[in-house]
Please model this.
Amino acid sequence: MPDHARVRDVVLDHTARVLEVEPEDLRDQPALDAHPTFSSFRMVDLVEELEHHLGVCFDAADLTIDNLRHLDRLTDLAARAVAARTTQAA
Model:
């Protein structure tokens, strides 16, 4: 099972690519809606990319604007989904 730091790296890399910013920009400003390229359309793209890359399906109830507009919350969401997938596979 990937640890939280590895999941964060995946989320950081994919988020940076989708928002067309440098990963360091996200480290300095983890509030995603602070970036000019943030939009609901990009968040849909990001969710799809993360689900595909991590092999998970996020619970629709977790896809709130609060969870999708901050890097730490998005990372926690992804980490929970990975942990749930791993638990189900065991």
Summary: The radius of gyration is 12 Å.
